[in-house]
Fold:
Amino acid sequence: MNLYVSNLDYSVQDEGLKKIFANFGTVTSAKVILDRTTGKSRGFGFVEMPNKEEATKAMTGLDGSMNEGKSIRVSEARPKSY
Structure:
């Protein structure tokens, strides 16, 4: 299951995002999206978890939780539309 994570602190990097979700289960990948021009975080990212039950628990447990002083939002990612 692919999760969308928003309102991340700009200091959070891929490994930090992975650690947040690893408490709930196996994380296949965690990617903080960077601005192409500046290379700085855009404040959101995606986390891939292979087990849907673990991903749902992570989504429920982390949505609205505080991380680095900010209340993060977690939801199921929508498929890319081209």
